[in-house]
Design a protein that fits this description.
Helix content: 55-70%
Order of helices and strands: HHHHHHHHH
Oligomer: single chain
Structural class: mainly alpha
Shape: elongated
Distance between the termini: 22 Å
Strand content: under 5%
Radius of gyration: 17 Å
Length: 175
């Protein structure tokens, strides 16, 4: 662990302000989880990241199931156990099945749109651009804003996976 969670006795007004977009019951060291408890070591960065991430989770035009499909593929490609565990649970809540989760790991899905989303993640990971063929496939199902939200979802969760892996954020204990 390179960047440990901020000890409870060091949580101050700056941390509370950084987490102000979150429900009050999550704005404390015992309920925040290891990722937020680590990120709040840099309150201004945390506040900015949460604002962007809240858009992706709650205001995005991308359907939640597709968001979770993309996030899980990112987590798999980055070998990010923390992100994987959290988003398997969230993915199931949006309708992802065991078959879908297996497809995420193999990179192949039976549905055309799911395949296009997985390919978009792989292509952005590999070359930082979605191919014309994948873009065309996405365009058959998603409007322009949804495709934009998809690219930023993949990018944000890729950056988050890099931070989690680099900082050594440990998965939360199951409650």
């Amino acid at each position: 662990m390179r960047v440990p969670p901020l000890p409870a006795d060091e949580w101050d007004d700056a941390v509370d302000h950084a987490l102000s977009s979150m429900p009050p019951e999550r704005r404390n060291p015992s309920a925040s989880g290891n990722l937020l408890a680590t990120l709040v070591r840099h309150p201004k960065l945390t506040r900015a990241l949460l604002r962007f991430n809240n858009h992706l989770l709650f205001s995005s035009t991308l359907p939640p199931r597709l968001r979770e499909l993309a996030v899980l593929r990112v987590a798999h490609l980055h070998n990010c156990e923390y992100e994987w565990r959290h988003h398997v649970r969230m993915g199931r809540e949006t309708g992802l099945t065991d078959e879908d989760i297996d497809a995420i790991q193999s990179g192949e899905a039976s549905a055309e749109l799911d395949r296009a989303v997985l390919h978009a993640v792989d292509e952005l990971q590999d070359k930082s651009v979605i191919s014309d063929a994948t873009w065309a496939s996405l365009s058959e199902h998603l409007d322009e804003r949804q495709r934009m939200d998809l690219v930023f979802t993949i990018g944000c969760y890729g950056a988050l996976a890099m931070a989690i892996n680099t900082f050594g954020v440990e998965p939360d204990q199951e409650r």
